[in-house]
Amino acid sequence: MAKFEIERLSTGILELDRIIGGGVPRGFVVAATGEPGTGKTILCVHFIAEGIKEGDHCIYVTTEESYDSIIRQASQFGIDFAQAIKDKKLIVIDALMGTESPWSLKSLEVEELVDKIVGAKRALGYGRARVAIDSLSAFWLDRPAMARRYSYFVKKILAKWDFTTLVTSQYAITTSDAFGFGVEHIADGILRFRRYIRQGVLRRYLLVEKMRQTSHSLIMHEITIIDGRGLMIIGPVGRRREDVALPGKVTKRVLSAQKAKEAENR
């Protein structure tokens, strides 16, 4: 039986490509989830920059930064989004500022988002395409119960237009809970970004929790963000105490049960 070859798209980060078996399978929806400040937006920038380099039609949807902010952020890592826009290789859809630009969203409605992305694809031309939606969870912040339905709708429509899609999903800082779990359910891949304070220093980590049709790494990797270069993977993380320790509430119940048993035996 002949082996089925999967076409994969580079993320723009070579070490991440290696961890996920060579890149993201064409047509997939991959969710980058995690708290703010963990590197999700920078991953989107790398993903789109690589698409521009490979000749893909690229679209970047920004909901939490302005059009100008995304252009500046990309330039910090040596990526010229402004030139790509002039060359008609990239369209940035601004869902934050609500300007009069034809590529600006007036409201955070999923139907308007999809219509705008499809319109941008028509403007760029037919062929292999990439879209980064940063973030998709912004479209249901006030309607978290709709997260799964909205996510499915976005995936269904974009698949018909030959998009490989990277979406970000925010987690709350205080609870680490997602703003609706729809993305995780429908996504073909999940990249979970985490952050911890180690000896007074903020450290960032990345774990591939899911990637269909892929034999991917199951090991958490430490990452860093370097000015002029972007997101870099430092290497795998060894087992830590918190990885195997029981949660605090469980530990308290176990200790309480042990004390009760000792009291009975006295």
Topology:
Layout: E1 8-9, H1 14-19, E2 24-25, E3 29-34, H2 40-54, E4 57-62, H3 67-76, H4 81-86, E5 90-94, H5 110-124, E6 129-134, H6 147-160, E7 163-170, H7 182-186, E8 189-198, E9 201-211, E10 221-226, E11 230-236, H8 241-244, H9 248-265
Helix pairs in contact: 5-6
Instruction: Report strand %.
Output: 25-35%
CATH-assigned fold name:
Rossmann fold
Overall shape: it is globular
Helices, by number, come to 9
Enumerate the spans where pLDDT stays under 50 for 5 or more consecutive residues. Answer: none
Structural class: alpha/beta
Distance between the termini: 69 Å
Mean pLDDT: 88
Question: Can you describe what's shown?
Answer:
Helix content is 35%, strand content 26%. The chain has 266 residues and is of the alpha/beta class. It has a single domain, classed as P-loop containing nucleotide triphosphate hydrolases (Rossmann fold, 3-Layer(aba) Sandwich). The strands form 2 sheets. The chain has a 9-stranded mixed β-sheet with strand order 5-4-6-7-3-8-9-10-11, sandwiched between helices. The protein has a two-stranded antiparallel sheet with strand order 1-2. The chain starts with 7 loop residues before the first strand and ends with a helix. The mean pLDDT is 88.
Brief write-up:
By secondary structure, this protein is an alpha/beta fold. It has helices at 14-19, 40-54, 67-76, 81-86, 110-124, 147-160, 182-186, 241-244, 248-265, and strands spanning 8-9, 24-25, 29-34, 57-62, 90-94, 129-134, 163-170, 189-198, 201-211, 221-226, 230-236. The chain has a single domain (8-238), classed as P-loop containing nucleotide triphosphate hydrolases (Rossmann fold, 3-Layer(aba) Sandwich).
